[in-house]
Amino acid sequence: MTDSNQTTPESFTPEADKAPTLWERFRDSHIWHSFKRDRIAQLSLTVFMGYVIMALFAPMIAPFDPYDPTQIDIMNSELPPSWDEDYGDPQFWLGTDAQGRDLWSTILYGTRISLTIGVCAVLLQATIGIIIGLIAGYRGGRVDSILMRCADVQLSFSTMMVAIVVLAVFQASFGTELYQDLAMLMLVLVIGIAEWPQYARTIRASVLAEKKKEYVDAARVMGLGQIRIMFRHILPNTLSPILVISTVQVANAIISEASLSFLGLGMPVSQPSLGSLISSGFEYIFSGTWWITVIPGVVLVCLVLVMNLMGDWLRDVLNPKLYKG
Amino acid sequence: MIAFFIKRLAQAIVVMFVISIISFSIQDNLGDPLREMVGQSVSEAERQQLRDELGLNDPFLVQYGRFVKNALQGDLGTSYFFKEPALDVILAKLPATLELVFGASLIIITLSVPLGVYSAINPQSWFSKTVMGFSIVGISIPVFLTAIGLIYFFSIELGWMPSYGRGETVMLPWGWETGLFTADGLAHLVLPSVSLASIMLPLFIRLIRAEMMEVLQSEYVKFAWAKGLHSRRIYFLHALKNTMLPVITVGGVQIGTMVAYTILTETVFQWPGMGFLFLEAINRVDTPLIVAYLIVVGAIFVITNTIVDLIYGLVNPTVNLAGKK
Amino acid sequence: MALLEVRNLEVSFGLRSGAVKALRNINFTLDRGERLGLVGESGAGKSVLGFSILNLIAKPGRITGGEILFEGQNLARMSARELRTIRGNRISMIFQDPMMTLNPVLTIGQQMVECLLAHRKISRENAKTIAIQKLKQVQIPSPETRIDQYPHELSGGMRQRVVIAIGLLMDPDIIIADEPTTALDVTIQAEIMELMVELCERNNVALILITHDLGVVSQVTQKAIVMYAGRVIEQGPTREIINDAQHPYTQGLMNALPQMAIPGQRLNQIRGSMPTLQKIPTGCAFNPRCDYVMDVCKHQLPGYTRSGNCQVACHMVAEMKRDEVSSEEV
């Protein structure tokens, strides 16, 4: 009743015989048609691309370098955004933070850090998860049950909890100074390692489903090696669940990073992510200095929101079998 | 039933074993108890002698055995900062955290089920679309930002709600300090509970909606329609009971996440609970307190997971609690 | 008046890419106690037809035209409340897969009693007694204990017996059975089918049997409807259709039966496959697969031609009939 790839004989006309180019295939695909109709998806992607450009070209866009102490004047601290008629300074579009840094520049650099950590952490998650998922699904048997038990145990500890404990212990044993230098790496490692089961379970489920299909048997009969079968034949067919999970996972990783930074376990104030910027502003919010908290907060929420919206849209369009529970 | 408990007990022992190893390694690596006890003025020879007496030079396993033995007797060491048994310090703060979790769970349960079910039954209505819109925004806002926002609007701008602390509390005879019986205590509970619920509620609404929509497509629901049953019975008995099975499982995992999020909410609201204490302990490198917190939280995980499994077994007839085949 | 009369029934699915007609121009009648077979490959629209008789098509599908007259009342235009008094009570349905049909979290008893209580004002105890009695009728051993069990504690065959018992619970006038045995082991298929037919016969219940198996249809039913791509292509008395199929598609289905095969040779399958509803060929929907395809088949939808007691939608049959008539005239 729904679409299927069944071809009726009349579709074998000579014109259709020509192999379509990649672009033509994309243009005719379900995903592009759905995208053309979906306003929210278009808006989300546009905003997200905006963020990516902001992050990539932060050093060029930003009027100041927030990492350069010579450009910071403590006398400029806590200036409100430029539209404030009494105290606003046209030099600082979004005002300044408690240390006198231009908020707009700091937000640009912070977005860069938040996105980098989010993407790197998810790359790590995906790598670990995909490898484990492929092995578990393909080998089956005891290997599979041991790996999946590990995934269960890992999942039963919440990511935030694990991250807080691990980072706290590292901070306490390294000392704050050294920790601040390593913060970015630590965040990527902790968030990256804690969430691999998400991928592993989904990939495993897809592998089990794909394994039953004939082309895998065919590949095996043709004498292709196991690793080759996994990477060349099974992995491409599990791409749509990976894409859906990754979108949402980057959003989650950015939230986790922000939360950890807010607790003082993440990026230091000298090199702030969006989370640590919000955290540094929180002390001043009661005295009416709202912009240091609110503006980066809005930037953060928008970023996460558009990623979640894209994730939802992809899930609706690609409709992959995701592992539940 | 007995088999179920034995199985659960075995799992609990494994989990607590892992936590005890982690805790012990933290205690072993973090901070030097000697420094806390004697200060800098003691000579190296005296230090060595003291180390021997304290058993700090014993093999790892011996030390770990001693740690477990003491832990089983409820002795997790003395807090460096409070100079009191660490476990007592933690347990004194337990009621505050549990009441916060209770408040948040109440909000989540009473709202997520009706909203999720409604939007599954009427996916096209404007109300469902509004609910789904709010939920996607909800999952995109980090807990700490919600908390800050709530304080900003309801405490600072409007002045309706207290912004921090537990307010007036009453000591119950068995040593439970509660804020549930005073108007002031309840008023203080509102904002922290709402912000703790803010991230879980949309998650559960989305989960319940997705599960319910899937169940409504199932053959047995179609069969129920074909039997001429009333829609109320189909939605709220046939469909809801099946919807809740995966929701209960996910709920069990989410309780763990919620405990982690209490650290964030408690920090923002300066709620005198375990999470707030834990963060202070980390900043002060108060190792015994960190260890005590981990063990108490581990115990909470184990207990809640057991309860969740028990409920799941009672609701789902295909799970056999009695263990007979 | 026939017990059930379907007139010009049309069902559409509103998909994103536009509305698609799942059923077109369906006409048939069913008398009390009569057994009707609905045959076709999967995707032909037989199940949609089964569900639409009870006005139970899931969204985005809906009845867009025609009438379903049950004792003169039009089910297509009934309110939800009125439909409830028909569904499960006067017309009941048996689904394909007994593993999926019963609710896994409710006992057999709960699922039977609720049906009785929904249609009759009786006590719970009475309802349970009736339920046990029905379970006995479908030959379930020790129904008193079975009734308190959950579906997963029963075998597939047992479950389908329970589903049949639920179907018979209210002594309905019509039972619609959608491939009631395909999901079962081959060994019990015949047993269940026999039981169903026997119970229908004994209680004078009309049966609409949806199946892809012409063999079963020939054994069980008196009337048959062959469907292709949402349209009836041949209908009439089962015996005539089996013995002298007119439509090339029906002939193809007959030849594909294992009984018809010559040992050692391949089964005679119809080449190609059923088109999806979005891509129904113009003219006769079967034309790309038909061995006797003519030019007219590609452009013009064939009307119905009377052949014996059957109705056939085929240009070739129509032409042959015309020739017969003209040759008689000469």
In percent terms, what proportion of residues of chain A is strand? under 5%
Distinct helical segment count of chain A: 15
Element-by-element helix/strand order of chain A = HHHHHHHHHHHHHHH
State the share of residues found in helices of chain B, binned by percent.
Answer: over 70%
Write down how many β-strands of chain A occur, each being a DSSP E stretch of 2 or more residues.
0
Estimated share of beta-strand residues of chain B: under 5%
Shape of chain A: globular
CATH topology of chain A: MetI-like fold
Largest sheet of chain A: none
**Do you know the CATH architecture of chain A?**
Orthogonal Bundle
Chain pair forming the biggest interface: A-B, 40 and 43 residues
Low-confidence stretches of chain B: none
Strands ordered across the widest β-sheet of chain B: 1-2
Figure out the total of helices of chain B: 12
- Tell me the structural class of chain B: mainly alpha
Question: Care to describe what's here?
Answer:
Chain C: It is a peripheral membrane protein. Chain C: Keywords: ATP-binding, Cell membrane, Membrane, Nucleotide-binding, Transport. Chain C: This is ABC-type dipeptide transporter. The complex is a heterotrimer of chains A (about 325), B (about 325) and C (about 325). Chain A contains 15 helices and no strands. Chain A is mostly helical and about 325 residues long. Chain A has a single domain, classed as Orthogonal Bundle (MetI-like fold), CATH 1.10.3720. In chain A, α8 packs antiparallel against α9 and α14 packs antiparallel against α15. Chain A is globular and about 75 Å long. Chain B has a single domain, classed as MetI-like fold (Orthogonal Bundle). Chain B is globular and about 85 Å long. The two termini of chain B are about 15 Å apart. Chain C is α/β, with parallel strands linked by helices and about 325 residues long. In chain C, β1 and β2 form a beta hairpin. Chains A and B meet through α7, α8, α13, α14 and α15 of A and α1, α6, α7, α10 and α11 of B.
